[in-house]
Predict the 3D structure of the following.
Amino acid sequence: MKPNSSEPKWRLSTPLSTLRDISALGFGREEALKLCQLLADNTREGVIFLDRQGCVLMANATGSTLLGGSRQSIGKPINQLLQAMSPDGYQCRVEEGLFERLCEGETCTVALSHGAADLYLIHSRELQSKSAYAVAWLRKLNSPREAMLRAGGLDSLTGFAGRQAFENALSQAMERAQSGTSSGLLYIDLYHFKVINESCGNDGGDELLKQVAGIFVSCLRGKDMLARLGSDEFGVLLSDCSLSGASQMASRIVKKVESFRFRWSGQELAIGISIGVVAINAEGESANQLLAAANASCNAAKKSGRNRIKVYHGDARIKARQESMQWLSRIQKAIAEDRFILYAQPIVATEDIRHRHHSEVLLRMRDEEGALVSPGEFIPAAEQFGLMEELDRLVLRKVLAYMSEQDDEHHYAVNVSGASLGDSKYCDYVCKMLDETGVDPARIQFEITETAAISSRRAAIELMRELGSRGCKFFLDDFGRGQSSLAYLRDLPVHYIKIDGLFVKNMLRDAKDYAMVSTINHLAHVMDLKTVAEYVENEELRDALEKLGVDFVQGYLISRPEPLEEN
């Protein structure tokens, strides 16, 4: 294939190395900068030179376009420009002192009004002058799927949209509704999926989710959108569709599901669903409220039985708000009545699963009748109403009290939410509880998800360093799921890497997942970190992990979560 003559003749690796190489040839600084500008103007990426405060000094043609035009951008902070260009109010902070903390090649994806772009921030002492140059590097993502994948908008299991991408699409549909273009929203929940998942195992549950997603999409039109919203919940956005049309689509989906049989390990199972239907019109308030209304409709359908549809109008929003407030009241009442209990799941050495290294502490809630409520039901509400900090402290308080009464030296790991990471008083609270209970800090460990650690990077590092100085250990949980950078991993003072279970459980069937597990394990060991593999359900998987050299395993092969007192 002949090269396109309209394509740029020059490809720029990084402006820093280019300037350094040109200067080495004997050119003066001004000449070198002019040559760099020439090269920058002939690349499709946006190249933007910044001063010490992160204000734009100059930009190539692509960078000027991405920032809204050269005249408007010169002299303004890049974070202000990106925020103004973003439909979601995305903020990319470029502030004084930040350059010294940034690592060369660090990347994030920013949403712009005319598409998405990767943003690199590059800094070199060789570029320092009175203006203390740095460079912002923007690469526009031309493919919608690429942009969605980079922004975490695709569900890794089904390959369809994830919740964030779906909410963005809902917001756009609501904007169109203001001009008279109505759409429909379906909220679909698999009937008794938990029972099926337990009987078929996680692998069977995953396969079921992929197959039913295929059924749903086979019923839709090309302009409709399917998304996975939760573990067993799906959303459908029906563009340019009336409420009656949305109801007809829901009936079509139900009819197709009724004729479907799921076959797994010699079993043949009939599948049921519940669907809530909501109109997207000019009366809508927000994407979250629409989803809450559709979820309330779906719950009403579920109470009526298998394969039922419930259409709600304005009262769905009222019901959704009422249900949200009910969850707030239920959680607060459970805290007051001490109905939150701790479970634990052991983590063992891969080469000898009889040796329990430590246990991860998990939170469960009992309802008014004594039945267990799964975290998937109350955690989202706790996050919505700002109760996670209180629940994190409750877990820490309970587990330290339990440990102080035991004669053994068993170690326990507790999860720290993003909300607690942002709480400046959380570290002081941990230290206070350690002092009061007398528990050896080396016996308590903390698990922080990769996403939370990166989102609150500075706070995470401070917490790790402070508690690490007292002997506490840290796990980076779900590693590989978020938009991680090796620079982040290098800077975070963690002791263990928990390899995301989505890679682990599929590694024997998927060469890419196997490579991910192997690469993460090797990288961790090079950095002198221990590794833990989640979702280990059988000996075949454990054997493969042992051959790779993974240090520890966790999953149903070892033990299901059980009450802390029985652990």
Remarks:
- The two ends are 64 Å apart (CA to CA).
